[in-house]
């Protein structure tokens, strides 16, 4: 069993970089229009749904890190193999690889949709996919450190979003938030559930964990990272809720972008066009980290060189994405993905944790038995 | 990848290897010193193909002096060597060795070594009956005097530059750094040129790994000739395929010494007025030595200005092209009127217009550079004004684009390092093309590729984008800003030694993922 993962020191990163990694993984295309999805269920309490979803995310992250700490220096793939044995473990691993690829596809088609709607209505989607994939390949071949480097730059960009959104704030109507909690709990929880597609991404710490130098600080920085993402999402949500009338929000697919389009500079209008193109740098680490996580899974099953992997992966993704064209198809993919993401990100860690506990107990007893004998 | 590049480099060096012809190989076989006077002279003449400037002087019936005209110092030859050997009839080489008042004097029994020494300015003293020759090193170097730096001029600070003589340069550096730990390792590179190369570093400050890497890379070189330090820098760089320079070429001894003191490794090449400093990060290329001499708020302002200039220089023209080609809606209405007025007569799409003007600017720059100084300036001004005005009046470009292009050109010249300034200027062209085809999306593609490329680079294995990635907060006070000197740690973290916390790319071979 190829369980031990050899990571050389120059592939390791400082724990505080987890802040930017968690942030980079979580903020992607979702932030363009998550307000509508949450608003549909939770109405004016959507911001509470955001907070609740993050509280849940913190809890999940806590469980994940607990599980990871049980197995020294292992990523999720290794843990699968250790708990479930080679065959079933590899089966779960391939499911996870598929999930990562699915996330990759979902991000890339959503971005393409935004570009086609806002910037270039007739730009061929194949060109967009090829250009994005080429950049992803270029980053990926640079290695893990380059991917994290891009995340670091992306962190600055994401932190700029709330600052830019301060401009629409002058038209905000705080009364739109009232009455607070005028909604039944079920709808609020539905809103929380709708947030999952948006805030999925932090599950990738499962794979980055072995590459972190100071393991004891992982928890602290992951939680800080989650808090910074919460800050970005919460401000975006609050500003959207107060800027738009409730019913307007129901009809806007990309509420954040619509808000941006009112910003005017003396020499520049329609700033959202620039920002959408600049969004490339925000989805790039997203794509690369998912790709990297998928690669980690694949080499557990079959050893393959990173170059070969990334090229074949890109070709497959490119062919797949060509079948998804219309808005309704994209919506369908998003719906399926949010369901899968909910199960994998928000439920599965608990199941795994229980299995890990049982496994630990079992091995401990075995060791004790061995000792008594 | 790295190892592949290494191999490629070796291959390239190998191609040069094949140059030496048979004659050179003939020269390789070593001959002894002939005790007989005539045999000795004949062997020297054979080896050197009896050049016209080979001088043979018979001091006495037994003593012969052979040297190359103009390579030896005539004064010391007359006063020290000839006077010292005046009345000596029978004398042994070791006696000469002890009586001649010359600082560097050697004995040799090998003909090849003696001739090599003669070719760099030694006089060979041969005594009949002795299979040994005395090598008196009384060489004189022709070099220009020390002058103010021309390419890296600054207002406040030392006004002295390296010249082409390695000894002068080394003495300049030694005058700045009086420290017994200043190490100087000498190499001789190039089979035809025998160029002296000195590697300098301060033991205890420079990282051991960097010193070893440089030493290894220089001694691995197998080249036929080496004329300038820029060539050496390219040969020992991490990635010769990148457009970005990874080692600094400086003509300022104060900047060089400053680099050594902050833990970098320096290389001085004989015959070149530019010295190499490495490892260097991307951001350090935009720092000037003068920044340390200015008040810190001003230095910070100037540094930030330079980075804004770099950004403008690369992206302003592309943004103009993209906005006018695809994104009319981003231009506010008041600005749209003058823009459309100035572009009303222009028959070309913005990309052609922009490329055309950029080309003119580059032509003016290149012409101004190649012409003699006085003519160059005139051509620059006259060409700029005449061409610019005429182009607008003829209606092939718009006024506003001329302003933008001039701004970009100006901005690209604020980069303190000439090599880096060139890179910034060239990067604009692919960005304009991408912007002309795909608007802001194309610009963003260019930006991303640039960013990833920078992240991928390394200088002597140290990260190129430090101190921002990997983040090294201790270095931030002296990066794109400069805080008061009290807050700046002298030793750059990028060049720290020993058990480095961030051994990024330290092993060149390691495959990452």
UniProtKB/TrEMBL annotation, chain A:
<feature type="transmembrane region" description="Helical">
    <location>
        <begin position="336"/>
        <end position="358"/>
    </location>
</feature>
<dbReference type="InterPro" id="IPR004761">
    <property type="entry name" value="Spore_GerAB"/>
</dbReference>
<protein>
    <submittedName>
        <fullName>Spore gernimation protein</fullName>
    </submittedName>
</protein>
<keyword id="KW-1133">Transmembrane helix</keyword>
<dbReference type="Pfam" id="PF03845">
    <property type="entry name" value="Spore_permease"/>
</dbReference>
<keyword id="KW-0812">Transmembrane</keyword>
<feature type="transmembrane region" description="Helical">
    <location>
        <begin position="46"/>
        <end position="66"/>
    </location>
</feature>
<keyword id="KW-0309">Germination</keyword>
<dbReference type="GO" id="GO:0016020">
    <property type="term" value="C:membrane"/>
</dbReference>
<dbReference type="GO" id="GO:0009847">
    <property type="term" value="P:spore germination"/>
</dbReference>
<feature type="transmembrane region" description="Helical">
    <location>
        <begin position="191"/>
        <end position="209"/>
    </location>
</feature>
<keyword id="KW-0472">Membrane</keyword>
<feature type="transmembrane region" description="Helical">
    <location>
        <begin position="153"/>
        <end position="171"/>
    </location>
</feature>
<comment type="similarity">
    <text>Belongs to the amino acid-polyamine-organocation (APC) superfamily. Spore germination protein (SGP) (TC 2.A.3.9) family.</text>
</comment>
<feature type="transmembrane region" description="Helical">
    <location>
        <begin position="273"/>
        <end position="295"/>
    </location>
</feature>
<feature type="transmembrane region" description="Helical">
    <location>
        <begin position="307"/>
        <end position="324"/>
    </location>
</feature>
<feature type="transmembrane region" description="Helical">
    <location>
        <begin position="221"/>
        <end position="244"/>
    </location>
</feature>
<feature type="transmembrane region" description="Helical">
    <location>
        <begin position="87"/>
        <end position="111"/>
    </location>
</feature>
<feature type="transmembrane region" description="Helical">
    <location>
        <begin position="12"/>
        <end position="34"/>
    </location>
</feature>
<keyword id="KW-0813">Transport</keyword>
<feature type="transmembrane region" description="Helical">
    <location>
        <begin position="123"/>
        <end position="141"/>
    </location>
</feature>
């Amino acid at each position: 069993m190829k369980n031990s993962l050899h990571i050389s020191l120059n592939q390791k990163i400082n724990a505080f970089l987890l802040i930017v990694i968690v942030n980079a993984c979580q903020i992607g295309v979702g932030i363009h229009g998550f307000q509508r999805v949450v608003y549909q269920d939770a109405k004016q309490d959507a911001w509470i749904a955001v907070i609740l979803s993050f509280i849940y995310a913190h809890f999940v992250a806590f469980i994940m890190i607990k599980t990871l700490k049980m197995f020294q220096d292992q990523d999720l793939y290794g843990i699968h193999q250790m708990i479930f044995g080679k065959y079933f473990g590899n089966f779960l691993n391939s499911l996870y690889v598929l999930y990562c690829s699915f996330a990759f596809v979902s991000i890339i088609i959503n971005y393409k949709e935004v570009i086609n709607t806002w910037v270039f209505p007739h730009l061929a989607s194949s060109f967009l996919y090829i250009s994005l994939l080429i950049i992803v390949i270029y980053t990926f071949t640079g290695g893990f450190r380059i991917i994290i480097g891009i995340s670091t730059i992306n962190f600055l960009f994401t932190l700029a979003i709330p600052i830019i959104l301060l401009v629409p704030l002058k038209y905000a109507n705080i009364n739109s938030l009232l009455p607070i909690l005028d909604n039944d709990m079920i709808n609020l929880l539905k809103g929380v559930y709708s947030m999952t597609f948006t805030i999925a991404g932090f599950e990738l710490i499962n794979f980055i964990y072995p590459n972190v130098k100071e393991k004891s600080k992982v928890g602290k920085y992951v939680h800080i990272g989650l808090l910074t993402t919460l800050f970005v999402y919460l401000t975006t949500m609050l500003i959207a809720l107060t800027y738009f009338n409730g019913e307007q929000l129901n009809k806007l697919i990309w509420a954040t972008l619509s808000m941006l389009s009112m910003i005017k500079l003396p020499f520049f209008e329609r700033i959202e066009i620039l920002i959408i193109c600049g969004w490339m740098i925000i989805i790039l680490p997203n794509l690369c980290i998912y790709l990297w996580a998928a690669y980690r899974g694949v080499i557990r099953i079959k050893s393959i060189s990173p170059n070969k992997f990334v090229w074949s992966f890109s070709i497959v993704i490119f062919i797949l994405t060509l079948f998804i064209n219309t808005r309704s198809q994209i919506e369908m993919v998003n719906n399926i993905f949010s369901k899968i993401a909910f199960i994998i990100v928000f439920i599965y860690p608990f199941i795994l944790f229980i299995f890990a506990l049982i496994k630990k107990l079992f091995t401990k007893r075995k060791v004790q038995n061995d000792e008594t004998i | 990848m790295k190892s592949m590049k290494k191999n490629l480099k070796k291959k390239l060096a190998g191609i040069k290897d094949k140059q030496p012809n048979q004659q050179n190989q003939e020269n390789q076989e070593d001959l002894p010193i002939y005790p007989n006077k005539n045999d000795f002279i004949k062997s020297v003449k054979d080896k050197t193909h009896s050049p016209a400037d080979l001088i043979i002087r018979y001091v006495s019936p037994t003593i012969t002096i052979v040297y190359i005209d103009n390579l030896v110092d005539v004064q010391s030859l007359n006063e020290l060597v000839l006077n010292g050997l005046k009345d000596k009839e029978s004398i042994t080489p070791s006696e000469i060795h002890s009586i001649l008042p010359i600082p560097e004097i050697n004995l040799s029994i090998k003909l090849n070594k003696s001739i090599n020494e003669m070719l760099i300015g030694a006089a060979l003293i041969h005594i009949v009956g002795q299979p040994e020759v005395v090598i008196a090193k009384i060489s004189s170097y022709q070099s220009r005097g020390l002058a103010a730096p021309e390419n890296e001029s600054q207002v406040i600070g030392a006004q002295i530059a390296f010249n082409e003589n390695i000894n002068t340069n080394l003495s300049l550096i030694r005058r700045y750094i009086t420290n017994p730990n200043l190490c100087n390792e000498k190499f001789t590179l190039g089979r035809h040129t025998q160029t002296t190369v000195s590697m300098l570093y301060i033991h205890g400050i420079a990282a051991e790994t960097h010193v070893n890497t440089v030493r290894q890379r220089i001694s691995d070189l197998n080249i036929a000739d080496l004329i300038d330090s820029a060539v050496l820098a390219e040969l020992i760089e991490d990635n010769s395929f990148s457009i970005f320079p990874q080692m600094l070429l400086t003509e300022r001894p104060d900047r060089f010494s400053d680099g050594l003191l902050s833990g970098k490794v320096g290389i001085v090449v004989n015959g070149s007025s530019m010295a190499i400093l490495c490892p260097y990060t991307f951001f350090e290329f935009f720092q000037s030595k003068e920044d340390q001499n200015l008040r810190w708020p001003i230095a910070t302002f100037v540094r930030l200005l330079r980075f804004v200039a770099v950004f403008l220089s690369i992206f302003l023209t592309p943004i103009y092209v993209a906005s006018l080609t695809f994104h009319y809606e981003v231009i506010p209405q008041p600005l749209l009127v003058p823009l459309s007025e100035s572009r009303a007569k222009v028959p070309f799409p913005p990309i052609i217009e922009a490329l055309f003007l950029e080309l003119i600017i580059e032509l003016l720059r290149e012409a101004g550079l190649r012409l003699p100084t006085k003519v160059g300036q005139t051509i620059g001004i006259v060409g700029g004004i005449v061409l610019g005005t005429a182009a607008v009046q003829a209606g092939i470009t718009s006024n506003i684009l001329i302003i933008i292009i001039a701004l970009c050109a100006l901005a690209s010249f604020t980069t303190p390092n000439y090599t880096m300034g060139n890179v910034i200027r060239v990067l604009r062209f692919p960005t304009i093309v991408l912007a002309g085809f795909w608007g802001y999306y194309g610009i963003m593609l260019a930006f991303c590729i640039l960013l990833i490329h920078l992240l991928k680079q390394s200088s002597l294995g140290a990260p190129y984008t430090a101190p921002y990635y990997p983040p090294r907060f201790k270095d931030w006070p002296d990066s794109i800003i400069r805080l008061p000197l009290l807050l700046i740690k002298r030793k750059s973290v990028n060049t720290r030694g020993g058990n480095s916390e961030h051994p990024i790319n330290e092993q060149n071979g390691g495959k990452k993922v």
